[in-house]
Amino acid sequence: MDEYAVIASGLTKKFGDFTAVDSVSFRIRRGEIFGFLGPNGAGKTTTIRMLLGLLRPTSGTATVLGYDVVRQAEAIRRRIGYMSQRFSLYQDLTVSENLEFYGRTYGVRGERLRERKAFVIRMAGLEGRERELTRNLSGGWKQRLALGAAILHEPEMLFLDEPTAGVDPISRRAFWDLLYELAAGGTTIFVTTHYMDEAEHCHTLAFIYGGRIVAQGSPDEIKKTQMQGQVLEVDCADPERAVRLLRQAGQFDEVALYGSLIHVVTQDVEAHRREIPERLEREGIAVHSVDWIVPSLEDVFISRVRNA
Questions:
Q1: What pLDDT digit, counting tens, does each position of 35-78 carry?
Q2: Cα dist. 248→51, 252, 255, 261, 307 in Å?
Q3: Could you tell me how far CA 31 lies from the centroid of its own chain?
Q4: Which residue, 138, 219, 126, 144, is CA-closest to 182?
């Protein structure tokens, strides 16, 4: 079992009559990036708080790095790093002062703290910004600083709760490059997100909705095995009107707009591949192509939620 950094079995959390997390079970291998994917309110943060020992489960069990989340929470917290959605930085301190504070909080001092601060500054690309007040940094720089603060003590595992919320796409990509470097060095990473493109970067995923896990596996496994139906991608003029018409037909499992393209989920690809252009062209909408495609993670998530 030493292969796994996290083992959760039937983990449940209730607040009165409300069940925030409903009997979730999953395992995270050491050294992998595990993505917990779901909309706001799905139960992602509550699950993290139970794994960190900050919330006591109503039922079920979990271990993190071999330690029980209820009985050995303090041992867990010494070995993990945590980065919240709000970054938890002190805005009136400089970059260097924030790192100094978090280093000492984690028990890192003296020469080791100086070495770790220098490493974090290089890793995050913050050279020359050490004396800049944190409140003056952009969202992307604050994000990198928060990650640096979370890894000062070289934790075995990182918990990142919506770490890229509100950050621009370029900063998000740079942040994921840093996560890959950390994972390559052996750090296990648990990251929550509601961005489908980020989910593609994870080694393993779990989809959570309404407190329940509705699918899990690698991104490729999920797309190959968890989809209910197949996907046709429609390229046509006036796609917004086309979506309305296709939904009104009532013949498809799902019709959704993806940028300027339409994804239609159906159980009968061949029949609808011919029928869709005929239907739209009768309404004066020119159809450029209708192609069968491998479903995206978003297609699968919508499918699993609809059938949950």
A1: 999 888 899 999 999 999 999 999 999 999 999 999 999 999 99
A2: 45, 10, 10, 18, 20
A3: 16
A4: 144
Global confidence as pTM: 0.85
Task: Pinpoint the alpha helices (H) of the chain.
Answer: 44-51, 73-79, 95-105, 110-124, 139-150, 169-184, 196-199, 219-225, 239-249, 269-282, 297-306
Measured between alpha carbons, how far is 36 from 48 in angstroms, rounded to an integer?
Answer: 10
Structural domain for 260, as ranges: 227-306
Domain finish residue from 175, 202, 224: 224
Split into its structural domains, the chain has a count of: 2
Structure tokens at 42: 């799905």
CA distance 114 to 47: 34
pLDDT digits (tens, 9 = 90+) for 163-212: 887 778 888 888 899 899 999 999 999 999 888 888 888 999 999 999 99
Name the amino acid, one letter, at 2.
D
Task: Give the contacts of 41 (CB within 8 A, at least 6 positions apart).
Answer: none
